[in-house]
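User: ok so my PI wants both of these folded by tonight, can you help

Assistant: No problem, let's get them done. Here's the first:
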Amino acid sequence: MDPLFFVATLFAALNVILLTGLIYLYARILRKTRAGYSAGLLIFAVLLFFHNIVTLFAYTFMGTFYSDQLYPVLAVITVCEFGGLIALIKVTL
């Protein structure tokens, strides 16, 4: 496996883990406050979670269909998403 493709797959898996934590946090906040903003964040996190599950599946089982030239782009996308999720967790806590 190409190292950049491995990085993309690894960070997609890390994104799933981070989003699981965010979903838990947002659901807990929503139960306490019933705020519409928290409901929106929960919906956002759930949809992004499903996106990352599909992405992880595609990288794992359909990686041979991707061109080698896409690997840097896929790695950058998943690493940037990871950074955004870290920032979102930081402002949530």
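One down. Here's the second:
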Amino acid sequence: MIAVSDLVSKLQSLSEERAARVVSLIEDLADLEAREDAEDLAAASEALAEYRKTGEAIPLDELEKQLEL
């Protein structure tokens, strides 16, 4: 993993336009990760609610299918 100080140094060596594009990509990736985390949490909450409603455990292979794993 690259140290943050190395990344900052590399960004400073780029033109303003290129650095802005890199930062924009980083922000987009962070947003995508947050959305995926929210989807994962929603799926887990749904599975837990289903378990609480039925009292039956969902087999792992079925859960993986539902979560598209």
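The mean pLDDT is 90. The chain is about 80% helix and 0% strand. Good luck tonight!
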